[in-house]
Amino acid sequence: MDRQPIDIRHIWEARRRIRPLVGKTPLVESEELSRLAGGPVFLKMETHHEIHAFKIRGAANKILRLAPEDRKRGVTTFSTGNHGMAVASIARRLDIPAVICVSRNVPAAKTEAIRRLGAKLHVHGESQDEAESACYRLQREEGLSVIPPFDDPDIIAGQGTIGLELMEDLPELQTAVIPLSGGGLLAGIGMAVKTNQPDSRVIGVTMEGPAVMHYSLKEGKPLVMRETATLADSLLGGIGTRNRYTFDMVRHYADDSVLVSENQIVEGIAFLLNHHRTLAEGAAATTVAAVLSRKFSFDGKPAVLIISGANIDSSTLFETLEKASRSSYPNSTG
Ligand SMILES: *Cc1c(COP(=O)(O)O)cnc(C)c1O
């Protein structure tokens, strides 16, 4: 790639900047997945943040860089849920007003959490792209600073701090398996991991259906797709037809991009509950689903699956576990 929006130094700076607000998350080995893969497989538990998702990293890095007068006017964003919770959480801790724009498709567990965190919630339209338009209107009309969910150098650097923690805990890491939507998560981790070990492998995972980044990579340009219902609701939303950073970075850092079905995501959620007593949302369980359904091959060297979040409606969770109990995967009900 000719021109990177950030370099590894920005990720180190982000790490120092966000440290007072964002803790390091655990890395745990999965015995069962290691056995299946024929080599050590670890889980990076981004479910352990206060808001139960990694988005707190990028949001903290971006908001901490705002000028004092911008902080006073306030921030806004558009989100499928977790990024909205992240912005609301950081804004509250720094005493900054926040307006979070979401579409009507965002699950109740997430919109209620945003309200509880004290932000103003703006429900608008039927898709993430419509929520985005509402957000930029607030920027124009009220002078609020937009905290973009992925296509921004400070957001990418913030998410990249996960990669630095991985290097610290598992320097021999060979494969990173990363849920993929707008690509901020994969771009940041990809840069951190491959700067350290250029021949390591980065694999993106999306749900079948509106896997916008996946199909955009195949077409060689950003596409627009209709949203459809999925358990991996945090992976919904376009990448923007005027994508500036993440499309090129994901193209550069991802060695492979794979898709998993809704049933495979169900198995991923059930697996994490049964074998790790860990609650994961659909987007996070895609990485486990990709391993269970053998979407790529292992070389016996250490691999990490990013377990990116745990914000799932209880009704969705009940339905999911019911489905899992009827499925063929052994031990899926424990
Ligand atoms: C946002 C999100 C992702 C995808 O991150 P991108 O930077 O948009 O690719 C994955 N998992 C969860 C839980 C998320 O909230």
UniProtKB/TrEMBL annotation:
<dbReference type="GO" id="GO:0006567">
    <property type="term" value="P:L-threonine catabolic process"/>
</dbReference>
<dbReference type="InterPro" id="IPR001926">
    <property type="entry name" value="TrpB-like_PALP"/>
</dbReference>
<keyword id="KW-0456">Lyase</keyword>
<dbReference type="Pfam" id="PF00291">
    <property type="entry name" value="PALP"/>
</dbReference>
<dbReference type="GO" id="GO:0004794">
    <property type="term" value="F:threonine deaminase activity"/>
</dbReference>
<dbReference type="GO" id="GO:0003941">
    <property type="term" value="F:L-serine ammonia-lyase activity"/>
</dbReference>
<dbReference type="InterPro" id="IPR036052">
    <property type="entry name" value="TrpB-like_PALP_sf"/>
</dbReference>
<feature type="domain" description="Tryptophan synthase beta chain-like PALP">
    <location>
        <begin position="18"/>
        <end position="309"/>
    </location>
</feature>
<keyword id="KW-0663">Pyridoxal phosphate</keyword>
<dbReference type="GO" id="GO:0006565">
    <property type="term" value="P:L-serine catabolic process"/>
</dbReference>
<comment type="function">
    <text>Catalyzes the anaerobic formation of alpha-ketobutyrate and ammonia from threonine in a two-step reaction. The first step involved a dehydration of threonine and a production of enamine intermediates (aminocrotonate), which tautomerizes to its imine form (iminobutyrate). Both intermediates are unstable and short-lived. The second step is the nonenzymatic hydrolysis of the enamine/imine intermediates to form 2-ketobutyrate and free ammonia. In the low water environment of the cell, the second step is accelerated by RidA.</text>
</comment>
<dbReference type="InterPro" id="IPR050147">
    <property type="entry name" value="Ser/Thr_Dehydratase"/>
</dbReference>
<protein>
    <recommendedName>
        <fullName>threonine ammonia-lyase</fullName>
        <ecNumber>4.3.1.19</ecNumber>
    </recommendedName>
</protein>
<comment type="similarity">
    <text>Belongs to the serine/threonine dehydratase family.</text>
</comment>
<dbReference type="GO" id="GO:0009097">
    <property type="term" value="P:isoleucine biosynthetic process"/>
</dbReference>
